[in-house]
Amino acid sequence: MSTEAQAFVKEIPSKADQFPDWYTAVCLKAELADYSPVRGFMVIRPYGYALWEGIQRWLDERFKATGHVTGYFPLLVPEGYLKKEAEHVEGFAPQVAWVTQGGDEELAERLAIRPTSEAIIMPMYAKWIQSYRDLPVLYLQWNSVVRWEKATRLFLRTSEFLWHEGHTAHMSSEEADRECLTILEIYRQLLEDVLAIPILVGRKSPSEKFAGADWTYTLEALMPDRQAIQAGTSHYLGQNFAKAFGVKYLDRDNTEKFVWTTSWAVSTRLIGSLIMAHGDDRGLGLPPRIAPIQVVIVPILGKEGDKVRSAAAALAERLGKVARVRLDDRDEYTPGWKFNEWEMRGVPLRLEIGPRDVAAGQTVMVKRTGGEKSPVKLDGIEQVIQRSLDDVQRQYFTQAKAFLDGHTVSATTMDQFEEAIRDRRGFVKTGWCQAQACEDAIRTRTGASPRVIPLDDKPQGVCLSCGKPATATMYYARAY
Which CATH architecture describes the domain 295-391? Predict the structure, then answer.
């Protein structure tokens, strides 16, 4: 590494040796986020928000294609509404922030700052849904929620975070479950095809489901420190909230029935997962499909500065038709400094162009995933850039998939299980009889949490805890 590069990345600890410090340094140094004056709340800087906008755009297109529409519901929830569904309020009570005063007046009823919005949305559904003709209701909103966290970390766990909330109502249980699975597949595509993060897909155990749900579908990823992270969830709520809030409809047979509901979300936690999954000791690594800037062009001016600058600008205009391009022609920084800045920011492709390149009708391309330099002729460069971006996208996913596969192990005895969890090998696959007592025993003994029962589960063997025949396969891990 050059002296200039060392100077640029000197504040980044080793990812392998100091993972938590590395993560925080990348968030700050790449200007993704910063700490706010309010403890536990973060400021998302423009480059970090651009990642969230990319996620929003991609998801919004898929949601609209599947018939969903966007609205907005209030930030504040009356305490009485929050308490209507007992399991729901019990699950969120420790994290709720309350408004008790408005102006100079003490409120007659406390207002919760939404930790999630079921309790403010369902009363409106009770008002709007009267007949089977009003169903299904496929609403979502993009918003923030507040959950008063004791220990926080940029993007991964903050007291306020951004997400979308989908809240749908249906005529039948089967239709509601299909909705959950439709959303789950959209999330899988986002994670694997866009963010290049391979995942395990399935159901949560009853102890890990969303408070108030009958069951929860989940997507679980494995981070480089071999801890699992919940990347997204889709909740089958059954009729729990419909009964609590009186959400009924008149069916075709002229009988009144309760609707079946779902809720689902992914949040800015995905940005934290993205940072951890693909970053390295040079900083951020971004798959091209989510990168705010896919190609940066750095002119190396030399003695023919005007000619080089003109050629670089023409190249940026050409490539801007096929990629998200930034021309970095700032005079106050050296080319070496720019190279390291854009590597820190994870830009997938860098193009260098100097006097010799202009004369030769070429540019020099550097991939963020490799670092080797290769000359590229300007004739037909659009196709080369598109292929190269696809290559970088595949490289990120292939590397992450190899890591997931290499850090997923099976255990048939408690000794094997304990050793794997102690050594943080990643996901540990084992049999489970689905008894809560057995899950609790494994948690207590090992400190691991149950992450996911795969959708295509074909249980084999016996329960790790009690030795009875396994009726489910469970992946355990230490987790965020």
Answer: 3-Layer(aba) Sandwich (3.40)
